[in-house]
Amino acid sequence: MSYQLSRDASRCVKCGLCLPDCPTYQLTRNEAYSPRGRIALAAALEKQQATPNRQFRQRMNSCLLCRRCEKLCPSGVKFGRIMDEARALQNGGHPGPQKLLIETISKPARLRRALGMIQWLKPLIPLIPDLSAAMDFKDYYPVKGAREGSVGLFKGCAAEALEPRTLKAAIVLLNRARQDVYIPAGQGCCGALHAHAGDRQRAAALRSGNARAFADQPFDTLVSIASGCGAYLADDEQLPVSHLDICALLARPDIIRHLEFKPLRASVAVHIPCTLKNVLGAEQPVLDLLGRIPGLELQLLGSGQCCGAAGTYFITHSKTARQLRQPLVEQAERLNPDYLLSSNLGCALHLANGLGEQPPQIMHPVSLLARQLLEN
What share of the chain is helix, strand, coil (3-state, %, to 5)? Predict the structure, then answer.
């Protein structure tokens, strides 16, 4: 494991091309908060030339893992993998409360119970998300009519608890695209939050569980609605099937031809999460799909900068997260859209919390697409 970190870290030639696009370096102008600075710290830790004290952890854990640097790197440095390994080497990366938070988020039933108990605090703590009605999901949703393919749907954990309507919308779109939809019961949390917090053992166990759940299934493509989960699944070498973001699948020529939409004269601000843009490369499919709704006026929110949500970052590093969110909030206020769409639940919650008491309707792109589907 340490050899892997050293090998990946040695690819960094310290060129600095990543600096203008690193959120934390732009805020601090401190090399220790830059990608090449963190790579140097990770390599020093692996060689036992650095101690994971409070200052060291602060520098490493303040990274949002937006992976913009990785997308831009001419040397192909696997920065995300380096950071996960470094956080594992620093004995878990995050303190006990962070682990408790992650374990709560990663279990839908536990998350729903926790949110249900604190809903009364929402007037005082707007960060607490609304709790929508729970929904049950079947293992199989067949196409009504001619079938052209089969896909698996990854439910995730927070999405199942907080975005069940989005999962239902995904099923509607996939069925309309003549795809049978399978939702294997044995699936669970993808493990991304655990891996990014340095809990290597728990992340590996969750990955293995999902690999078993998706093995020997009657589909060869797995789709996800949450870009953060999708980015982690896409890096999973154990996954027995290929993975695509749901919009990347729906935008394929052989599938998109089955999707027709009712006109909607409205303005839409489209937020592209870092994981969707920098890891999955699925920005254009989202725009292509939304562009098929007649009358819709699309505007991109931001120009590739991180909003600051980054998994649990907007909770654990709230000050920095608010600083990074502010430019996007100001742009959204100028645009004053009817809808704000994001493919990541954490980003959507974080942006909504910054947009005041009367924000636009905030939803996942597939929810709006399903709403505007023409009847057969």
Answer: 50, 10, 40
pLDDT digits over 178-235, tens only?
Answer: 999 999 988 999 999 999 999 989 999 999 999 999 999 999 899 999 999 999 999 8
Amino acid (one-letter) located at 319: K
The alpha-carbon radius of gyration of the chain (Å, integer) is 20
CB 98: neighbour CB atoms within 10 A? Answer: 19
Structure tokens at 214: 């998706």
Buried b (16+ CB within 10 A) or exposed e, 115-137: beeeeeeeeeeeebbebeeeeee
CA distance 230 to 244: 7
Model confidence over 129-149: pLDDT tens digits?
Answer: 777 777 789 999 999 989 999
Query: What is the value of pTM for the model shown?
Result: 0.92
The sign of the CA dihedral 130, 134, 135, 137 is positive
Residues 70 and 79: beta-carbon distance below 8 Å:
yes
Structure token pair of residue 50: 């650095």
DSSP string, 14-71: ---TTGGG-HHHHHH--GGGSHHHHHHHHHHHHTT-S---HHHHHHHHT-----HHHH
Q: How far from each other are the two terminal CA atoms of the chain, in whole angstroms?
A: 53
Render 242-307 in DSSP notation, one character per residue: EEEEHHHHHTSHHHHTT--B----EEEEEE--HIIIIIS--HHHHHHHHTTSTTEEEEEESSS---
Q: CB–CB of 86/184 below 8 Å?
A: no
Which amino acid is present at 336? N
The tokens for 274 are 């870092």
Angle at 15 between CA 9 and CA 21, to 5 degrees: 90
